[in-house]
Every structure is written in C-alpha cells, then in structure tokens.
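Dear colleague,

As promised, here are the two records you asked about, laid out in our usual form so they can be pasted straight into your sheet.

NAME FIELD: protein one
SEQUENCE, THEN STRUCTURE:
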Amino acid sequence: THTRTRTRTRTHTRVRAHASERPTFAVVGAGWGGLGAAKALCEALNTLPGSPAADVILLDGMPDPTGATPDLTPTGKPFEAGTRGFWKDYPNINALVAELGLKESEVFTPFTGSAFYSPDGLEATAPVFGDAVELPSPLGQVFATFENFKRLPVSDRATMAGLLAAILDLYRDEATFEAYDAMTAAELFERCGLSKRLVDEFVAPTLRVGLFKDPSELSAAVSMELLYYYALAHQTAFDVRWIKSRTIAESIVAPLAERLVDRHALDVRGGCFVTGVELDEATGQASALTYVDTREKDADGKAAERRIEGLSGVVLALGSKGMRAVVGGSPALAAAAPELARAAELGGIDVVAVRLWLDRYVDTLEPANVFSRFEGLCGAGGTFFMLDQLQKDSEELLWGGEGEAPQGSVLACDFYGADRLMAELDDEGIVELLLKELLPAAVPAFEGASAVDAHVRRYPGAVSWFSPGSYAKRPPLRTAVGNVVCAGDWVRMGEREHGAKGLCQERAYVCGIEAANALLRSCAAGPAGLRAAPHAVLPVRDDEPQVVLGRQLNKALAEAVAPLGIKPPWLA
C-alpha cells in the first residue's frame, strides 16, 4: 500500500521565474498524456530530492488529479469514468507499474475473454489468444476463434481478407495514408468486399467500443490502425486485462503522483482550469498562462484568477474540448500556431458512464461484454463489465468498503457516441434501459434483477473523434511555437510515431513522454535541459515477417503500376 499523496498548492497570485530562477514548465491536463509529460520532465530535471532544478506544474480541472482521493457517488460508493483495459502491447505502462514497485499480478487481473451480445443473444466470444499455440498472424486468430462465432458463417468471416490487403497498403506513403483518412471506414469496408453481415455483427460493434463511433463516421485510416494494433498485428494482440482492485487512479496514478511529488518536486494543482497561454512579443515563445483556481475565491466570491509567468515550456495534454477552451482564450497562440486552432475545431464524442449495484448475483460467460445492434442504444456503442467478477478479491470495496456487505453483482456500463441517448433519456431512463431491455436480452439471468443503487454520469464531447479527414487537423507533437508541445492519443507524433494506435492509454502516455522529451531536446529548459537525458520509450513488438514482406511487395507493385494510372480498387 502507499500513503496518500500530498497535493502542493500555492495561494499567491503570481509565480515568477526570472532569468536567475529555475526553469518553469506547465503541463495542462492530468490524463495519461499529462502524467507522462510530468514524469519525464520531473525525472529529467529534478534528480536530487530537495534540490529541484526546475518547477514542473501540473494543472487539471479535477479536484484531485493525483488519484489520492477516491471518486465516490453521492451514496459513498466508488465510481470510475469509463472502464479501460490494458492490452498485451502496453510495454510502457507495464514498465511504469514495475518502476513503481508494484506487482502486475496485484494491479491487473489475468487476461480475460470477452463476449458480444445482440438482440438474438450471444454472437461471438473473444478468447484469451495466449492460451492457444501461437501461429503467424492472421492464421493464429483464425484458428483460435474458429468456433467462437455463434451465428456468423465462415463465408462472411472470409470476406475480411480484402481489408487485410488495404491494411498492408496503409503506410505506403503519406499521400496514401491521407487518402484512406479522407474515406469513411464504411466506404472502405464496402470497397474491400466485406460482407454486410460481417460489418453489422462484428466489425461495426468493435469500432463502436474501440473508436466510439459508427464506421460511417470514422476515418478509414484510423479504423485500420486500430484493428491492426488491437487484433491483427499478432495472435495475442487482442488479449486484455483489467484493474484488479479499486480504480486506475488509485492503483497506478496515485503511487506515480506520490513518487513525483515526494522525489521530484512535482507541483500539482487540482481544480484549476487554464484560460489562456500568452506569448512573449520579442521571442514569440510561450511566456505565461492564466487559469481559474476553483479552490480559492476572490473578494466577489468567484473562483480566483491566477497567473504563472516566466514559462520555459508548456505541454497541452488536452482533448479537443479542452484545446478549444485554451486556444479560444489565447489569440496570440492561435495566430502563431494555427494548427492548434484547427485542432480546436474538431469534434468530441459524448460518453455516458453508469454503475449498477444489483440485488442478486448474475453469472455471465465473460466479465467483459459488448452490446451489438440493440435499437435502444440509439446508435451508441455499449459495454458492460462484471466488476464483482473482475475484482472478486476486494468485492466489499465495490460497495463502499468495510461494513458494507456485498448484496449482488456490480456492473460498470459505458455508452460511447451517446449523443442521442443523452438527449432522449434522463438518468432513470438510462438505468431502466439497462435493467429492462439491454441486460436481460443479452443474458436472460438478468431478468428480474433490481438495482439496489445506481449512478449515472454524462461526459459531453469527452473523447477524441477520429472523423474522416481529421488527420491533418489533429494537433502535432511539436507546434509552430517552439516551447509549446501537445500530448494525447489524438496527437500526430511525426518522426516520434509509436506503434500504439487509436484511443489508447499506452499511446497517450507515450505521447506525453515524447512531448516532454521534445522540450528537453530543444533545450527549452536552458542549462538544466542541456544536462537532462530524455525519458526512454519502449516500442511495441516488431511487425511479423509476413507483414513486413507484404508491405514491401505491395509498395513495389503500387509503384510499378502507378505510371499507368492504376490504383488499388479500394482507392480508385
């Protein structure tokens, strides 16, 4: 166990960093991207406890971004905004867990299977692929799942072959990638010959819970990236595990934040909303930022306005909604870095998170489950997780801790692309939809189960939307302003591109590290930065030989026929 993190706060109006003082870095946003950036900066610059060489300030609107304060419902039960898995190819997060002195067996569950349900019942199951003899991809996936599709005929599954050819073509060159990005995933699937049934019953539900939108609203390029990274790169790529007890914030973020605060002088400011970034007129570099501190009130009773000056660098670890707020209050930054203004125009995805505490236990085939093709979803992607199965060794904590006797199953249910759902149903309606329609239709044992307690939260525009044509508008790792960098799973990483793709904790964390490394490499930290070694980044597993060969042959063929005006049929 670890002690609770001490969040450092400052009550004065200005934080100045003159030429003789320490370099000052502001990390805006405390998700995985912000945490990765804060870690890389703190560990590179503040190597001696008690003698920091730089001020690293992490700002976030959450009251306590450190994870030390549990997120509770009004009735005192634990809550987490969205249930997120940890896939096989998360090398950097796995390394972080080890670095913190945590045992993977105590933080994560074993790898688990998952199940897909429709109004017709069980559609398919995804096994733990590592339990089977590993074969080259995609043969290993084909053999491991041959009996797992309960309704989808082999003839429909075989039509996936056309998409494999497009995936080999995806990275042929920048123009090819952008051509796929301009296309919807639905268009690509049709051109590649995927059967309507394969798309409707398996591929579309997978994308709705992987990229949180219907294929008709997603970039074909990013959809292929996701399917390759999570399912096709290796037989075991789809193997996933979950947090074994409490939440991600309490299990991983809290010990990380404690370490950074105590050993590396991280200054964490929760309840703080950045309102603008200012540029120095002489240098064109970011020199100050303003924020509203909801923890303090001014004389009028409003949230206090605060300012940080003398900045050496800024990491914008924000999604499109947060980027819109910051860039909207930063006219000089928007003019100097128009790429940030374009990113701020991109849309976000609405999410609804629900937790149910039932009056009985319900057994399910798998602890992780996907809803598919239910009209009641209103076009959203839906998942439900049996937390009492995933966290069975600490089940009483799901009910609020000591003295709270478990009464039944505890479910985390998430809806993505939930704009219609949010507009048409109130919180009670969403709970009723789950208990009366979705859950009993998927697993009949839910019939008659009641909720002892329930809690619903809505997050409008909270998740990155990889819409068709959005690639060029996504923020770059390095911006036109030399000491402003971006972090997050939607960021284009350029020459620092990583193998983790899509909406992905690993990608966001790695991008945060690379954003901090970019500042360190540019010597934005001054003399201290010159002596700071960049944080290491681990790659995902290498592509398998048959994939490498396939890409080489595809590129050679495409270049040979290009002078004749011949393109792949799905790009013609």
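NAME FIELD: protein two
SEQUENCE, THEN STRUCTURE:
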Amino acid sequence: GILYPLIEADGFTNSLEASATTNNVGWNTMKLAVGDTCDADLDTWVLLERNSFACREPTTSPSTAPSLVPSTSIAPTAAPTKSPSASPTTASPTTSPTASPSSLPSLQPSVVDQIIIIGGSLSISVDVCVFSDADKSAFSAAALLTVKQLVGCADDAELSSDNCVAEIAALCPLTRRLKTSSSYSSSRGLQEEIVQPNDWQLDFTVAATFTCEFASCNSAIDAVSTDSAAGSLVGPIAASFGSDDLLTRLSANMLDTGNFAPDLLLCFAVWGRVDSNPNLEVTPDTGLLSLLPYYPDWEFDSGTCLQGAENAPRYMQLDPESWLYSDLAGCCARYFGGWNENACNNVDGSGLWYVSHAQELCVTDCRVGSGQFCGGLAQDISDDLYSNPRSCCNTDLPWRFIEHCEAFSLQNTCYRGTMKYHRGDNEGWPIKSNVCVRDCDPVRDGASCGGLVEDTYIELWDTAEACCSEHHEWMNPVLCAARSDVQPLDMWWPDKINSLCVHDIVTPTEELSIQVYNSTALCCSEAINWLSVADCRARSGDTTILAATNMYYVDWGRERCVQDCEGDAPCVGLGEAQPWDERYATASECCAMLDWIPRRECFGVGVSVSRNLLGST
C-alpha cells in the first residue's frame, strides 16, 4: 500500500483555471501533465477543486428585445458585448475611485516617470566646518561640480543629460534619524527622532529619470532600467574613491573658486561613500510586499537584508508583518544586530574609519581595492567607527603620536613632523644623538632631524634650549642648543692644556660642559689666567686689534701705576695686564695702593715700553 506517513502535500501553489471547447457528443477527456525531474525527495501533486467542473450552454442568438434597464448582475459577463452601448453607463463620474481596476485598459497609456535617487557623502582632511561662510559656499559649489562631473551631470560633461540632477543635501549637518519600528503594523505609529552629529562634512544626492513601461513601474523592463540608471550613478562615484579622480577634480574645482590657497590643496585627502541601494520615487506595486521590501538573506548568507520581498522565502511572504521590514536599518537591527549590524547596513562598507591594529594606523570601512584608504569591511560594532582618522587614532591608538598616526593613515607624504625637539638618545630611536634632535625627516629637512616621532612616550619641546635644559642639564646650554641645531657657534672655548683659546667654528669642542666666550680676549682673560691677554691672544691666533680700556693697574715689578692704552707713559700697551691685576678707573685710586711712593713718581712718568712676562722693562 501507499506509505502515507512518508509523503506530505504541504507545498504552496496558485490556483489555476482552465477552459476549453468541448465535443457536443460523446465523452470529453481532460489530460493533466506535470514534470517531476532531478528530485527524488519531493513529490508532485495535482489537486482538483471539488465541484469545479461545469458545462455552460451558450445561447444560439441574442434576445429579440433588449431589457429596458441594465442588468444588475454582480459578476461581469464572460465576454464583452459585440457592440458598445450608445451612451455612458453613468450620467456623471463617480465621486470616489472604484474598489478594483477596470477590466479594460484605457485607450492611452499612463505616463509615469521613475526617479532613481542615490545618496552619498564626502569629507576632506581639512576641517571644512570651521571655514568662513564664503569659503563654505565655495567648497560646497566645488564639491557639487565634482559630483556632477563624475556622473555626467555637469554642463561641460560629455555624458550630460537633462535627466540627471545633482544637489548638495547638507553641509556640516546634524543628522536627524528616525528610530525605526521592527514591523509593518507598528511602523504606522509615531516615530522618535534622534539628533546627533553627522559623520560626514557634506552630503549629496544624484538622481536619474526614466519613463516606466507600466504605470506601476513593476515590469521586467522597468527593473532593468532601474538597475541600469542606478549603476550609471553609483559606478563612477564608487570608482573615483579607488583612484585619484575624486581628489584631482575636487582640488582643481576648489582652486578655481579663488577662495583657497594652493598650499591648502597640496597635501589634503578626500574620502567618501555612496549608497548601493537607490531610493525610488515610485515604489513598484507588489501589494503589501511593496510596503515591506526588506527581508533577511539567510539562503545565501550574505550577512544583510535584501530588497525585493517578492523574492523572499514563501513563509516570509505569507507572514510579512512578522518577517519583513519597511527599511534596511530596521531589518538589520532585528536580524543582524551587534557585531554584524554595520556590515548589514553597508554591504560595501560605511566609508568611515576604524583601527587596523596589525598596521597600527586607521583605515576606512570598505572593500580592499575600492578606495585609497580601504582596509576591508569592518567587523566591529558601529561604536568603533569614526568620522575621521584623527578621532580613530586618538581613541584606539593612544600610544601613537596623533599627528604621525593621522598623516600615515591618510598616506600624506607631505607630513614633515612637528619640527619640535626631543632628546636624541631615546631607547629604540633609529638615529642616535647625544644632544636634542627635531621631529622631522633628515632627508628632507636636514641633519638636525632625528626622524618622525611615532609614539606618545617621546616628549617634545618647542626650542632646543628647553629640551637641553630638561634632558641635558649638565651641558652648557649654548653648546647643547648649537649642536642640536647643527649650527656653527661663533664663540671661543679655552684649551687649557695648550694655554690658548679656540674658535668653535674652526675646531668644535667635544666637551659640551665647557664654558664658551664671545671673544678671544674674554676667553684669555677669564680662562687662561696664567698668561697675559696679549700673549694668550697671540697664541690663539687672534690678530685683531684690541680696544684700549684706559683702566689703571699696578705694575708691581716697577712699583708704578700704568694704564691700559697705547702711547706715552703711563700707557704700556694693550692687554698687558695680568689676570690677577686689579683695575682702577683713576690714577689716584691706583696710586693709593702705592702710598709709600711719591705721587709724582707713581704715575710712571717716562715709561712707554711694554713689560715682558717677568714684568721687567
């Protein structure tokens, strides 16, 4: 017998109706043919509705006299009358539309235009939102022209079309989002509006128009036209993110406004996003399913909700209020909340920034290769997405120096460091120095640079003197600063071994704690005090003429007061005083030190020669 427990007739189908002309005499036979191939698991059934077979006798001729009033049958006749009525069936139009469409089409087709709207966003590495009103307007105009050029809406574009429109939706806006409901029935109630900062500096829309084949815009040709129009808008914009096209066009358009200096545009970066699913002005009419177009894609495991509920599994279509959603966000929140909600809402990525711990920088949430900064689709929850790389670096890479992290995330080759100073012997630092170095690239900015600072543990100082004072307090600050800047030092340092003073430009000292002086005379006077200034200067190679001080001092060998000047007595020449000789402003003060010598003899009358090292004449 038949094993009924092993078979089930629980599939779904549509009711089908067939009619045919029968034989007037004899038996009429109906044949049913079904195909059941490539499937040994599921059975095929044919179900016939009870009492559904009926034979109808047609009249052989029309009645000889028509009725005086039209019939009031509930159902229409099976076939139209052979000739139209002489006048309309109603004296005036109905005050409300009929509950169902007419059985006959209108004589002229309905003309319905479908508008495909694509949204997108842009941001640049410069904070547009602090611009002046004039500069904001100029940036907005440049961005709009750039979008028009990309999709062929611009006046000078080769593909310009009257059916293409681009607009700036918002500049530095606050985002107003609706808390969407989870089902069709509850979505008819009130919705809560949430206001929060936008993740993008500028939002734009582009739109294309075509005429639908059907008034409902739900034919196969309408679907192909919709996909084609959406692709013509999304494709060029998305492609520009993966090349220099967007940056090149936007830079040129900003420069053409005359509001922005070329220096601003040399090293800035731009990133953005574009919607993959278009918004349609006319929703293709598929009944209730057109109100709830989104369903979770579990069949192909795409990780998102798909649009087009007519393609949803049958059990979802039969219970749309439980399974289907009116918007993508609500569907994603219900079925892919948490770790995958961002990927569900943004199949091609949100375009926002997230941290790549492997690279220790921040990347954008988009498929690898589809944009300059793309690091792949983010797997974290949306709280880990940021509107710009600086915010991402600051939050998720706190040990990285934020300027360096931001520049390298933006692949900014113009970044030259802060030019501030830090100690050059930091652990792990590639370029070692015993003084301070600057935060810059030595190849581009000179030998005083120690490389670009990457980590926040390195302390930076505005000046070399401040850095030296903090980290090399045992050094002479003048020498430390000069060596840090790799600049020649026009000062003198004492070489006490050789009893002379050395010009640091000629022979830089290696002893950075040594005292340095502004002149040879001062160096000789204070540091080589066992020689006279004149002799020390001569040994040091200083042939410059000293200026007379006209100061008096005691020549103890001759017991006379002499004067530091050239000429007749009491002048004895320049720089002849020994370091220990005390100087006096007047001859009286000097002679007071020789109170046993008569005053007329104290002034060294007749003395006009210089002393030798022993003080003899």
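A couple of things worth noting about protein two: The chain is about 25% helix and 15% strand. The radius of gyration is 48 Å.

Best,
R.
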